Amino acid sequence: WNIRYEFTENDLRISARQLQMFLDDYPDETPIKALRYLTGECNYGGRVTEGMDRRLLTTLLASYYCLEGLETGFEIFNSGDGIVYTQPPDGGSHEDHLNHITSLPLISPPGVFGFHENANLTKEMGETYTMMAELLLTAAQGGGSGGAGPDEGGGEIA
Fold first, then answer.
1. 3-state secondary structure (DSSP) of residue 78
2. Residue 15: exposed, middle, or buried by beta-carbon count in 10 A (0-12, 13-18, 19+)?
3. Please, are residues 19 and 25 in contact by the beta-carbon 8 Å criterion?
4. For 101-152, what is the HEC assignment?
5. Is residue 77 a contact partner of residue 84, using CB atoms and an 8 Å limit?
6. The dihedral sign for the CA sequence 71, 72, 76, 78
7. Stretch 17-35: mean pLDDT, rounded?
8. For 31, which DSSP code?
9. pLDDT band at 25 (very low <50, low <70, confident <90, very high)
10. N or C: which end of the chain has fewer CB within 10 A?
11. How far apart are CA 32 and CA 52, in angstroms?
């Protein structure tokens, strides 16, 4: 399980629009169960082919789409070392929301998305392997440099 799925911006956009629609249409009672179903089974779940991946997706959604998330001061994520993600201030101005967003770290820890801290190491290793493989491909492509050495050929590529 844990197949790489190609989720798109449209998946996120339609989920955000549905969330806004349900919050506007049901101000007294938020239909969390319906939101989880639409987002987890329809919008994103339609691309998920493995049962355990679908289970992981619905488990992650349950931690974000919950009634507690509507309460003031709800902590979306707390790393334990001072990094705390909370909801923006209720009824705040545009400036208040911008200040809240800029107070968050530039690089989100994996725990924000429900992953173990080692997920960051795995991601960085994968990016390094990809970069090195692509670098080796460019270095292995000879010809066209008119007999120039590796330094001159590398300079042309750069």
1. strand
2. buried
3. no
4. HHCCCCCCCHHHHCCCCHHHHHHHHHHHHHHHHHHHHHHHCCCCCCCCCHHH
5. yes
6. negative
7. 90
8. -
9. very high
10. C
11. 22
